[in-house]
Design a protein that fits this description.
This protein is mainly α. About 50% of the residues lie in helices and about 0% in strands. Its cofactor is Zn(2+).
Length: about 110
């Protein structure tokens, strides 16, 4: 769910570049180790570039501090949204309770 949320909210995130396959060359990475040895069900690695993007609104542009900060903010919003979605399901809360807070959070994360 987190990658889907990020693909909807973060302009620098590309779901098409994601790989959820555990390749032999990745077996010693932290995300695979915590999944296998500790049992963390959803462990991700987020990679970044300073060279630039080949998709989205940042296509052809070099990534700078501002874009990295935006991605960090969108990641935090994604985690909050994921938590609130889980809480709404757990406590059977109406989904529109998430909208007002999400709008406030989203407006504070915009890079200008």
């Amino acid at each position: 769910a987190l990658p889907k949320i990020l693909s909807e909210t973060a302009p620098a995130f590309c779901m098409g570049s994601c790989s959820f396959v555990v390749e032999k060359s990745k077996e010693s990475t932290a995300r695979v180790v915590v999944w296998r040895e500790i049992g963390v069900q959803r462990s991700y690695t987020m990679e970044s570039t300073l060279c630039g993007c080949d998709q989205g609104k940042y296509k052809g542009l070099q990534i700078g501090t501002r874009e990295l900060e935006e991605m960090g903010a969108k990641f935090c919003v994604g985690l909050l949204r994921l938590k609130k979605m889980a809480s709404a399901l757990e406590y059977n809360l109406p989904s529109n309770l998430l909208d007002i807070e999400n709008e406030l959070i989203e407006s504070s994360c915009k890079v200008t």
